[in-house]
Amino acid sequence: MSAVKEAAAFFRSEPGFHRLFIEMKRKYESLGRVGGAVSLQSFSKEERESIAAFFGKDVSRVFLSDFEKQLGQTKFAGVGLVELLEHYFGVPLMSNKERRQAEAEERERFFARLAEEHHWFAAVRGQRFVQTAYEADRDGLEAAVRLVGAALCRLPLSSYMRLPLFAQQVASDPHAFDLSTLPGRLLLSALQATTPGQWDVTSVESVNELLQSVGLLREDILNFVTCANILAETEGGPHPVFSAAAETNAALNIPLREVWPLVRAHPARGKTVYIVENAGVFSTLLDTRAPLVSTNGQMNVATMKLLDLLAASGAKLYYSGDFDPEGLAMAERLLERYGQSVTLWRFSLDDYAAANPVVDLPSERLAKLASVTSEPLRPVKEAIGRKKKAGYQEAIIGRLTKDIEGDLIHRLEGR
């Protein structure tokens, strides 16, 4: 047996040294050298007696350099402390700095390999949830990356498919790409990085549209459009539900599943559709029997699909929303998507003042105003930024009602 193995075996047989060796190992890892000292204040009487016997005197603390020097006075002369600790614990001794460096190098090799195998991974590897997944279970992360890679090979789809059915085909698990799972979050990030366009994965609306752009439907029952006095057609002719609702001035919540088959849509009367942000405003305006659509606070896929059909029919779209960053962002999105088919409705400075803006806007919401760049929205955007208050369209419901019932909209329409 070599001297270092014999020394390690000797100290293992002396239980009074185990705690000291643990502390000396920690000290070396902290300093990266044989230095510093270990206090024996909290050691047991038996442990202190064993250490005293080794040094030939009582000591209140052990300097690592003294222990190594004393080791040279025994039959284990020539054995260094680092070598002894490595054999005692059965692992190479490494400083914390060296360990962090080694871990960083191993992490880099891991991510570089995955990025080479899956080129999309290079764009998402730095995201916090990816780094956290590596620390928690890097094998699980690698499996998720491979699963997403298999999914991306099939996208975009030639026809729409519900996300759970797609997941079943790819992973034999309909919940594999649920957005609460690691593969689901990875798939979303990969699509965000590889699909042309600006996608905000913190927005439900944007997430649904991103998935739709590659043929995936996240959900088609609870994703619905609220409308009234709209007529629609499928390939088979007029849709009876839309027709019956228009006859009775009834509001409809039409799920995406029923919107997809539509090939045409138009106002039941006139040429104008009034789009509002809030359900309460929609319900109030329903008494006017006007063609209406409510976004219910977000532009989901079902709503956009119906508005696409309405715009294609030549209908004029008038949009009224809240005087807050989110309302302006929705207005801008409609302007970008429908161009001259849409007209901003009651977004003037006078309307903002009439909305009684008293609700404070925190800085994180005000920051969203920076993304609103449309010139027609600039005056009210700047006013909201200065006042730092939100106003809501419920406060101008009288103006909206009069517009529909009075002469203003007729003049705007050129009638």
UniProtKB/TrEMBL annotation:
One Pfam family name is DUF2399
Outline the extent of the DUF2399 domain.
253-404
**Which positions fall inside the Conserved hypothetical protein CHP02679 N terminus domain?**
35-231
Give the protein name, as stated in the record: TIGR02679 family protein
